[in-house]
Amino acid sequence: MQHILIADDHAVTRHGLRELLCDAFDGADVTEVGDGDAVLAALALHAWDLLLLDVLMPGPGILELLRRIRAHSADVPVLVLTASDETGYIVETMKAGANGLIHKHRAVDDLLLAVRRIADGGTYLHADTAVAIARLLQERPPTRLHHDLSERELDIFRRIALGRAIKEIGFDLGLSEKTVATYLARIREKTGLISHVEIARYALKNGLVD
How many domains does the chain have? Predict the structure, then answer.
């Protein structure tokens, strides 16, 4: 495994992952980028042996980003890093094209196992995550407020929950402040959650953000 691309909007996280992978894979060439648009630009310039993608960063939402990656590079191994425990969202991420997904709170050994398995052409979910997904498929999950949100609305919902301002979200997603405000109005109408505090509490309670 020679060429690895790490995408995360937190420089400290990127640096830590880079050091970890360089130590584990001698001779690996590890590149860092901070947003989804940079991922797509990097795909156009090089062939990659592995992509590590943060689930929430500036640029396209993770599901749209995965679809664009697959349209360009059908076979590149992709490992998604997330802080969310929302099982349905994990399922959608895998359907969109991820080869594996790992929570950021997992041990270093789990991360390296995931990287090796995916780089070798396999897939990866932690055993706890796989059990949660199996239960989701076997049982009819209770209806939750965010289940009626569109992909874009859910993306904005999560960014609001993390304390991002409307102007900042618009910049990250390439949308006008007016458009983001319109999405927020729809979110409020569909969920009944009015304030940003209510949205943040709901997101935390339902595992949509860490």
Answer: 2
